[in-house]
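Thread title: Can someone regenerate the structure for this chain?

I was given the following input by a collaborator and told the matching structure tokens would be attached. They weren't. Posting the sequence so someone can regenerate them.
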Amino acid sequence: ATQKGDVELIKQLIEWGQVKATDWDEQNITPFYWAAINAQMAACWYLLDQGVEVDALGGNLVATPM
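Best answer:
Regenerated them for you:
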């Protein structure tokens, strides 16, 4: 959902307790990281409002999305 910028789905998943905005996936990447590297700004803003860490390291490069 974050890669495609589906903010409504992201909201639902978080509200229903299916995921947390701060979760890491099997590739060691956060939802914010996915949204940022895919230029999904609305998703980024929503996740920032949820308290994500912008400087969280992730992925194969162990880098931040910013």
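The first helix runs from residue 7 to 15.
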